[in-house]
Design a protein that fits this description.
Order of helices and strands: HEHEEEEHHEEE
Structural class: alpha+beta
Shape: elongated
Strand order of the largest sheet: 1-5-4-3-2
Distance between the termini: 55 Å
Radius of gyration: 21 Å
Number of helices: 4
Strand content: 25-35%
Length: 172
Amino acid sequence: MRCPNSIQGIATKLYQSKLLGNNIVSHFSIVTTKLINRDCLVQALQDLKLTVQIYEQPHPLRGYYGSSQGQSAEIIVPGDSLSLRADIGFKLNASQGNYEAIHDPYETVRRLGQNFFTHTLMQAYGKRMVQAKAIELRSKFGECHISEETNGNVHTLRLTFAAHQQQQYVRR
């Protein structure tokens, strides 16, 4: 049984691409996140030793093949700074009030790991959010001490306020 011409053509291009070593799976993916605080996001990326560029208006991202593929973002981790061919971007979705991560999974997973966005970045971001909240609450409850505890996969940050000896727990 022969493949229809269109399917055979696609199969031939895939085969030729494999022979030529072209990466046909490289593309930007957009991931909806729960990241809402710009300052905490930037600080978390910097805490992870990533170079961050911040723009007031969305700036074109550089993709694996050099083009932006129509993608832009206000917060960009340049691919060059991580020895990647594609940038990582965070674009504010104004209607939802959160940031969308725009990245090339082929590049980011190889360099940063499969759990970078769901674990590594979220943990750093959560820590920055707790610190920001502690600063906000100091005016109400007095001096605050933040202690950290890790038990397996559970990372706990404990806020202790000196004035009222109240504790607030934030778990991830």
